[in-house]
Write a structure and sequence with these properties.
The chain contains 16 helices and 10 strands. Strand 3, helix 9 and strand 4 form a beta-alpha-beta unit. It is an alpha/beta fold. The protein has 3 domains: 12-158, Up-down Bundle (Four Helix Bundle (Hemerythrin (Met), subunit A)); 166-289 and 419-428, NAD(P)-binding Rossmann-like Domain (Rossmann fold, 3-Layer(aba) Sandwich); 293-411, Dihydrodipicolinate Reductase, domain 2 (2-Layer Sandwich), CATH 3.30.360.10. It has helices at 12-16, 22-45, 49-77, 88-118, 122-153, 180-191, 206-213, 225-231, 244-253, 265-268, 271-279, 293-301, 322-326, 345-351, 357-365, 414-428, and strands spanning 172-176, 197-202, 234-237, 257-260, 283-284, 304-313, 338-344, 373-378, 385-393, 396-404. The longest helix is centred in the N-terminal third of the chain and has 32 residues, at 122-153.
Length: 435
């Protein structure tokens, strides 16, 4: 069972337009359908039969395109919950119910009406058109209304109808990936440290995921990606940077919040950050294995002269990094400390995607991935992942030194998992400490 499609086998439709853009496309198609329907009605009232026929054919084409787009969207992201509260809920669901029932009804009516017109059976065409036209127009108009209520009213400026940020209503999370981060979060849920419900886990391979989950005392269920996005308020990515772009697209399209652990992926895909701002869906980037991000963010309000990040890890924690593999650099049998990389944060994240999420977070908080300088050293016998960060600017000088105990995965420190648990706790806590 596959988790996410690769770029090579992504559908032609999704290559033309982002999944997250489909709701807007659907609303536009419904709007066009309504305009051409009403124009066609006015034309036939004026006895302009040919122009009427053209308008109705265009309206039918818009409705067909809408149906295809609608099915593609909901196949990818599942159902999208309505988060409005108070009086708006019964209004929304009343409109949605009538829209859905009449949308099913109008399909055969529209086809029959169109066929009778094309066959020039005009008396029979007029008899059924008296029913088809108002139903079709109602479905087209309410389609736009449903879109506005679901994506515009509730998420306007990133707030719901009662002025709260989306994340403050978080009640459940789902995890993508079955590794050290997932293990730590499941254990936190079992011990009561998570203030929200863990509704499920998904991964690339269902069989291995179920075997992984069976090792816990009270494991969450295995869900498909679409099911997980539907069930959870917050999706936690713990599956590696390659899945982040498509995952973010699907999560934001469903109006859900996303926590990205593989922060390095955002350096090559800054559109994810912009999409979060456009949709009002929260994008959480936990501090991970580093301290001092609040200080760096504050310093960035003024002028920062330079940011330097030095990482020291045991050789086994760097094994398999693309930068080393591409250059034929082997760390087997290494006896002395060795610098294996020196360059920008962007280059480091591309060459060591599983090792330098700290670097990505530091660069995003500070002066950017191209100005942040990075050194990576392999140190034989080292039992901890060490990070030294130096920031200098008009505020003064900031020095951070971290010695992080590795988790079951030598590439991931224990502090990373703890910071994710804390980020979930902070997301639902009305009291915020730090900026």
């Amino acid at each position: 069972m596959r988790f996410l499609n690769s770029d090579a086998d992504a559908g032609y439709f999704s290559a033309l337009i982002s999944i997250a853009d489909l709701p807007t496309l659907n609303a536009a198609l419904n709007s066009l359908s309504a305009v051409f329907l009403f124009t066609g009605y006015l034309l036939i009232r004026s006895k302009k039969q040919n122009a009427h026929r053209a308008c109705m054919l265009v309206a039918f084409a818009c409705s067909i395109l809408f149906l295809v787009s609608y099915l593609v969207y909901h196949y990818q992201v599942g159902s999208v919950p309505f988060k409005g509260q108070g009086w708006v809920r019964p209004v929304y669901f009343t409109i949605l119910l009538t829209h859905t029932i009449l949308a099913v009804t109008v399909v055969p009516l529209a086809i029959i009406t169109l066929i009778r017109a094309l066959r020039e059976k005009f008396p029979a065409h007029r008899r059924i058109a008296r029913w088809t036209f108002p139903i079709w127009l109602y479905v087209s108009v309410t389609g736009v209304v449903v879109y506005w209520m679901l994506y515009g009213l509730v998420r306007r400026n990133g707030r719901d109808t009662q002025g709260r940020r989306g994340g403050s209503e978080m009640k459940s999370i789902g995890i993508v990936g079955c590794g050290a981060i997932c293990r730590a979060l499941v254990r936190a849920a079992e011990s009561g440290k998570l203030p929200v419900r863990l509704v499920g886990v998904t991964s690339r391979t269902e069989k291995s995921a179920r075997e992984f989950l069976s090792t816990f005392r009270s494991p969450p269920g295995y869900l498909s990606l679409a099911e997980l996005i539907t069930a959870a308020d917050l999706i936690v990515e713990a599956a590696g940077g390659k899945v982040v772009p498509e995952l973010a697209e699907k999560v934001f399209a469903a109006g859900k919040d996303l926590m990205v652990i593989s922060v390095g992926a955002l350096l090559d895909h800054p559109e994810i950050i912009e999409k979060s701002r456009q949709t009002g869906c929260r994008l959480y980037l936990p501090s991970g294995a580093i301290a001092g991000l609040d200080g760096i963010k504050s310093a960035a309000v003024g002028q920062i002269v330079h940011v330097r990040h030095t990482t020291r890890k045991p050789p086994e924690g760097l094994e398999g990094a693309p930068y080393l593999v591409e250059r034929g650099i082997s760390l087997v049998g290494l006896r002395t400390e060795k610098e294996v990389f020196s360059g920008s944060a962007r280059e480091a994240c591309r060459g060591f995607p599983a090792n330098v999420n700290v670097t990505a977070a530091v660069s995003l908080a500070g002066i950017g991935p191209d100005q942040t300088r990075v050194r990576i050293l392999a140190v034989p016998g080292l039992t901890r992942n060490c990070h030294d960060i130096e920031v200098e600017g008009e505020f003064g000088r900031l020095l951070v030194h971290i010695e992080n105990v590795p988790s079951e995965n030598p590439k991931t420190g224990k502090l990373t998992a703890l910071s994710i648990i804390r980020a979930v706790q902070d997301a639902v806590d009305p009291v915020r400490i730090g900026n």
